Amino acid sequence: MEETALEVEAMSKTYRERGRQEVRAVDNVSFKVKQQEVVGLLGPNGAGKTTIIKCILGLMQPDAGEIRVFGQDVTKHYPRVLENMSAVLEGSRNLYWRLTAWENVLFFAGLSGISSRDTHDYFNYLIELFSLEDKKNVEVRKLSQGMKQKASIVCALARRTPLVFLDEPTLGLDVETSLELRQILKQLAQQEHRTIVVSSHNMDVIQDICQRVIILSGGRIMVDDHVDHLIKLFETRAYRIALDGHPSSELEEALAARFSSINMAAQKYGVEIKINLSDRDDIYLLMDMLRSHGAIIDEISHEDIDLERVFLEVVRRERDEYASGHSI
Amino acid sequence: MNMRLGTLFRTVFRRELTMMTRYAVNTVSSLVSIYILFVLIFLGMQRLSSTMAGEFLNDTLEGTIIGFFVWTFTIFAYSDLSWSLTGEAQAGTLEQLYLSPFGFRRVCACTVISTFLLNLIPHTVFLVAMMATTGHWLRLDVVSLLPLMAITVMGAYGFGFALGGLALVYKRIQALFQIVQFIFLACLVVPTRIPWVRFLPLSMGNSLIYDVMVQEKRLWELPPMSVLTALGVGAVYLAIGLIVFSRCECVAKQRGLLGHY
């Protein structure tokens, strides 16, 4: 049986400030992370990702719920439970800018009682893995944003904790550096056998690094599934239909009224329809509607889908449900 | 655990030492500006003494040297603590310190002890410079002075913790930091003959340091009641500071303010 590294049960957190409206940042969230699993917390800004991580780390106090790390209740065993957790929070704002990258690594490892004498080789391995060997004796303030971010991650990993949180690890990085960092993290996840929780609003980061994704919106969990499974599931429901010629305006209106996710775009040959069907039987309904309005189907295919489409679809559905719930 | 605690202390001490050397210009310029202020006061006192008896200058000068030394040392200790708490929150490293399995309080204790020890070096140079400028050489009995300095500075650390805690919640309270510096100055100027003055922070400790440096008494020759009073007063202010800090820390954790500034 695979053991659980992290267990969050019915966690809620509301921000209250005098003179301001209450903000429910996390709403009854529960999930488990198995040992050596790499899990992504995906959601737009304000979805509750950072709040969840900070509550787990004991940097914030949740209003309700229980958190266990390797079976230990975080509240009861704080701060000893931190021997099992480390984190990179808000990227480069985790380092002393007047210390060198190497001095930062020694300092943050030392905060966990880890002496450089015991783990000198491991620190050097991390520095090399993140391509920082040429810059390890340079003050952090003189490093580029990407280098700072890498140094932050090295400092968190140097603590050698079995559970690592990476909060928005690619935030503020250019495309090239972000891609490089993602590749290193992917390699690291495979080599280190640690449990890693990555939060990001960047789908590519999650799709690249994580096995499982928890999609959050408005402080609630929308989806908790394996990335591959989720993409496959949406792939089977995502269709691309090419119509020969332009459909009548009546057909356009009827389709828009029936399928909220439909997207029609004019092409040289006619019209391209992209649609995500929430029900498997909807494909027959769609075909019937097209036939009854005399539309000529040129081609039907499954659409290639990525996590971004999955995420947008999940958030769209959540909004639709919320709107329909409020319109009644 | 003890060995690992030793690693924690070495780690924090090394950071403080490195930071001190990286910010050496800042430390030296602060001490030089205070030294210039001292020289100006000394010149003023010399001018004043030409119209008064010579003994007046000697007594006041010795008190001024010691007062200045204690004041600058406590200001450095207090501001090191309160500014470092706000500075760490600003830089984003405060949350990382909270992630130490030793707990933030132990990390803080290591920081306080490290800065206390490291501050002794430039301040001793400053003290020697003051004595050389005035030509008044006071006794430097390290065995007696070190514990008295620690006792005296305890109250200042209490203020440092309290203000650091308030800064975690209210963020911009720099003006309050400066007001406290003048409160410390007042505590050192008021004579301890007045009974209630003994319960002010720094006052009693400063008076005992005067006895060691001017009256040439050893620590064990000082009135035990006075030493105990200084220790008790320091401990009470430190405890109050820690309680305020603890309360503010709770509020900051509830509102999610630890990483904000």
Task: Write structural notes for this entry.
The complex is a heterodimer of chains A (328) and B (261). Chain A has ten helices and 14 strands. With 328 residues, chain A is α/β, with parallel strands linked by helices. In chain A, the strands form three sheets. A six-stranded mixed beta sheet of chain A has the order 6-7-8-3-9-10, sandwiched between helices. Chain A has a four-stranded antiparallel beta sheet with strand order 2-1-4-5, covered by helices on one side. Chain A is elongated. Chain B has one domain (2-255). Chain B is 80% helix and 0% strand. The longest helix of chain B has 38 residues, at 54-91. Chain B is globular, with a radius of gyration of 19 Å. Chains A and B meet through strand 6 and helix 2 of A and helix 1, helix 4 and helix 9 of B.
Please name the defining characteristics of this protein:
heterodimer; A: 4-stranded antiparallel beta sheet; 14 strands; elongated; B: 261 residues; mainly alpha
